[in-house]
Amino acid sequence: RLVESGGGLVQPGGSLRLSCVVSGYTLDYYVVGWFRQAPGKDREGISCISSSSGTTDYASSVKGRFANSRDNAEKTAYLDMTNLTPEDTAVYYCAAGVPPIGDIQEWCVMSASEYQYWGQGTQVTVSS
After folding, report:
1. Contact, 76 vs 70, CB < 8 A?
2. What is the mean pLDDT of residues 32-57?
3. Which of 4, 11, 69, 103 is the 20 to 30 Å CA partner of 48?
4. pLDDT of residue 14
5. How high is the pLDDT of residue 117?
6. Is-contact 37 93, C-beta < 8 A?
């Protein structure tokens, strides 16, 4: 089970930190992805971090503004979001996926179909 938290209402230019806590299993060997879905739009993959934290990737829409990290011992992943704009308004989801056997530590993709476990989402609203 994954549970996101940290969403809320923030003014343009503001920052938020989203957390994703895993319960029921270890996070060590899973890739973690972050996705968002704005009203009327498809779900968008915005970030991923490999199980070792050695590989990260970001969608062009958030690159340079968002940063992800993880603490496997705490079974928690984070998404730090800065310089937020109204276009970032969406429900944000974290997800965990099982990497392929040959690339457990560095595999990192932002395709929703590669993730087996999903949180319930947390709303982020950027508005003045």
Report:
1. yes
2. 94
3. 11
4. 98
5. 95
6. yes
pLDDT band at residue 13 using 50, 70 and 90 as cut-offs:
very high
Phi, psi values for residue 29, rounded to 5°: -105, 10
- 86: its two tokens: 């109204």
DSSP for the chain reads: -EEEE--EEE-TT--EEEEEEE-SS--TT-EEEEEEE-TTS--EEEEEE-TTS--EEE-TTTTTTEEEEEETTTTEEEEEE-S--GGG-EEEEEEEEPPPGGGTTT-----GGG--EE---EEEEE--
Q: Residue 54: is its pLDDT beyond 90?
A: no
For residues 80 and 69, give the distance between their C-alpha atoms in angstroms, rounded to a whole number: 8
Residues facing residue 96 across a β-bridge = 32, 117
Residue for token pair 């109204």: 86
Rg of the chain, C-alpha, whole Å: 14
